[in-house]
User: Which sequence fits this backbone?
């Protein structure tokens, strides 16, 4: 029997269908502990199974690699990569939850199903359909549905116990970190215009970041952070400072029901406010 015929395994097909159903319907409409873990179990069963069918001589490597990849994916180690992908509007979703590691227990059962003697006789067109559908399912479920938001007049204030000069310095440092990540993981080199204080790709019009000049920025100026798709006012004195979020634009992932505007603001707080607070 050709290895490709193993794609006719009912257990494999059910796992792929469960993965799609859970990520695109159940998790959004019935968020609970079961739907939160179901995709991990289904994905860890089906993903290495498909890879092993495509590369049968490296089946053990496919399962070992999946084991290690899942551990890293569910850890903070890949967060810089995910941040960059989201900044370039690729809606990749990942939740750090170490209890998800329990789903790794499904791997031996998947390997057993792959190695189990079977006698499927599927027509080539059906085998190709299952293979393509499964591959698309893994891609689609890693980039769940969402929407592009463009909110103005948010006017949410964040206060810090350090000077305005320090706040500007930390905001510039944050932008430099994201520019560095973009250049490291992106496909194009980022250039810098020292006169305009901007980072850009091929053309200065394609600005990805603009450093703030403390001597020139006024309290009424709206500073635009291209790397965060946000606009804010920076105010303060020698002992305290404020960052007022004025507008926000970006891609918000749908993870259950809720207010997308609130999700967008929380994402800004995570990638901007929390980080500038933690700088030493």
Assistant:
């Amino acid at each position: 029997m050709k290895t490709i015929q193993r794609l006719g395994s009912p257990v494999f097909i059910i796992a792929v269908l469960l993965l799609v159903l859970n990520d695109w319907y159940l998790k959004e409409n019935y968020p609970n502990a079961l739907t939160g873990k179901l995709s991990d179990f289904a994905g860890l069963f089906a993903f290495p199974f498909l890879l092993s069918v495509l590369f049968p001589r490296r089946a053990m490597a496919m399962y070992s690699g999946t084991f290690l990849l899942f551990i890293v994916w569910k850890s903070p180690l890949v967060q810089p990569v995910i941040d960059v992908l989201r900044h370039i509007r690729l809606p990749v979703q990942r939740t750090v939850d170490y209890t998800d590691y329990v789903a790794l227990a499904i791997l031996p059962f998947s390997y057993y199903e792959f190695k189990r003697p079977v006698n499927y006789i599927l027509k080539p067109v059906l085998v190709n359909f299952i293979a393509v559908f499964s591959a698309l399912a893994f891609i689609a479920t890693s980039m769940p549905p969402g929407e592009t938001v463009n909110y103005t007049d948010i006017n949410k204030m964040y206060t810090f116990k350090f000077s305005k000069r320090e706040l500007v310095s930390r905001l510039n440092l944050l932008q430099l970190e994201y520019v560095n990540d973009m250049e490291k993981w992106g496909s194009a080199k980022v250039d810098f215009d020292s006169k305009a204080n901007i980072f850009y790709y091929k053309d200065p019009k394609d600005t990805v970041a603009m450093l703030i000049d403390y001597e020139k920025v006024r309290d009424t100026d709206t500073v635009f952070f291209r790397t965060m798709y946000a606009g804010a006012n920076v105010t303060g004195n020698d002992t305290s400072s404020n960052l007022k979020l004025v507008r926000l634009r970006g891609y918000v992932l749908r993870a259950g029901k809720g207010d997308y505007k609130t999700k967008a603001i929380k994402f800004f707080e995570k990638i901007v406010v929390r980080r500038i607070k933690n700088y030493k």
